[in-house]
Write a structure and sequence with these properties.
This protein is an alpha/beta fold and about 200 residues long. About 25% of the residues lie in helices and about 20% in strands.
Length: about 200
């Protein structure tokens, strides 16, 4: 199992409980960290980490209408996983505020032939900017990187982020390219639940 997290320096403290929970329930071969440094942040649990320093990224600049989003540029970098992690055919992407409570093997082993990803439908709130039949939350998602490369997904998603001012940036872009073309498989809601009430 290969897992990816992304976060700016101010979010590093969140990595520790997230990764601890992941390792408590799963055998993980590699954890990819898309961060702002060259080394693993101090205090993380022992694991096989691969660090990708994206602080000097030049893909998203001031010309991108979403560069000053409520989210950091790091969220947009998740649209580029197929390019940033060239040696993997699939990856589980987890938000750093996600606590894993069970094995992720069932979603890791899903057949994603012809699909870009699997993710749970957004159930918390009414956000659905495209008025699609459903809208997917990619806080927990399995990305089929091979299929995304085949479809030139990083370029499509980057172009979308430069031509649309959107609220949930890479998540909106992924929904735009996966929902209607049926490039996404729905995960049970339990894979992305929140106890927040408002």
């Amino acid at each position: 199992m290969k897992v990816a997290y992304a976060g700016t320096r101010n979010l590093y403290p969140w990595f520790k409980p997230a990764i601890r929970s992941l390792l408590a329930h799963n055998k993980v071969d590699t954890i990819y960290l898309m961060i702002e440094d060259d080394d693993v942040p101090e205090g993380l649990p022992e694991a096989n980490y691969k660090v990708i320093n994206v602080s000097g990224q030049t893909v998203f600049d001031e010309a991108c209408p979403n560069i000053n989003s409520q989210f950091t540029y790091m969220a947009m970098m998740r649209a580029l996983y197929a390019d940033l992690i060239p040696d993997e055919d699939r990856i589980i992407s987890l938000d750093i505020d996600t606590i894993v409570c069970d094995s992720l093997e069932p979603i890791w082993n899903m057949d994603l032939t012809g699909k870009w990803m699997s993710a749970a439908v957004e159930y918390f709130g009414q956000y659905n900017p495209f008025k699609y039949p459903c809208y997917f939350n990619v806080g927990v998602a399995v990305f089929n990187l091979d299929e995304m490369r085949k479809d030139s997904a990083p370029k499509l998603l980057t172009d979308f982020l430069y031509t649309h001012k959107i609220m949930c940036i890479e998540q909106d872009a992924l929904n735009f390219y996966t929902v209607i073309p049926r490039k996404v498989i729905e995960l049970p809601t339990r894979y992305n639940e929140s106890t927040l009430t408002g």
